Amino acid sequence: MAIAYPYDGVLYLAATKRCTLACTFCPKQHGRWIVAGNDLRNDAEPSADELFAAAEALHPERFREVAFVGLGEPTMRLPVVVEVGRRLRAHGHRVRLVTDGLASLRAGHDVAPELAGSVDEVIVSLNAADPATYVKLCPNRYGEAAHAAACDFIRAARKHVERVEASVVAVPGLDLAACRRLAHELGVPLRERPWFDPLVGEPHEARA
Ligand code: SF4
């Protein structure tokens, strides 16, 4: 089980295996948890000290950035992300957060201010251009409301984090032009991730 692992010049941290979304394009929804040779199916969730120590053990200065990703939604453990991010940045490391953008929806209030000073960049999974497509691709307990919440989170994060992007996985049939228009309206660039068949593709590329 790994909570910190290198991949393609980035040091990745996995704070949890839990998610709010059950994305149809995600390999873990199909029982595939191995990323770059690391099994990320961690039942025990690391403390901030444990996660920071795991990052330090891999010498973050050797990487261009440290990224909170998964397989799991990092902001399910927002206090850990905030603390570890602050400590890494205090040591001069660049920190990126990849998130579903649903932290404020889960918390019931705007948590974006908590990211100030703890991350340099946030990439929010927009997933689709409209709520109906979103919930079809990413079933979740909030239903279509999750799409608007992710959009709101992008707007809120822009007030507190230097760089914010939206992302989609280019699932066959997804209206990428509409996704680009929505990202433009939200004032952020759109990162278009390649789609791989989740049963045979590369798990790392398909993550949110
Ligand atoms: S793509 Fe990301 S948010 Fe979606 S189920 Fe997989 S790890 Fe969770």
How would you sum up this structure in a few lines?
With 208 residues, the chain is an alpha/beta fold. It contains six helices and nine strands. The strands form two sheets. Strands 1-2-5-6-7-8-9 form a seven-stranded mixed β-sheet.
> How much is the average pLDDT?
92
Q: SSE order, as H and E?
A: EEEEHEHEHEHHEHE
CATH class: Alpha Beta
Oligomer: single chain
Assigned CATH architecture: Alpha-Beta Barrel
CATH superfamily: Aldolase class I
Strand order of the largest sheet: 1-2-5-6-7-8-9
Indicate how many domains the architecture comprises. Answer: 1
Helix content: 25-40%
User: Counting H and I runs of at least 4 residues, what is the number of helices?
Assistant: 6
Main beta-sheet strand count, sense and barrel state: 7 strands, mixed
Alpha carbon gap, first and last residue: 20 Å
Which compounds are bound in this model?
iron/sulfur cluster
What overall geometry do the principal axes of the alpha carbons give? globular
Structural category is: alpha/beta
Alpha-carbon Rg, integer: 16 Å
Count of beta strands: 9
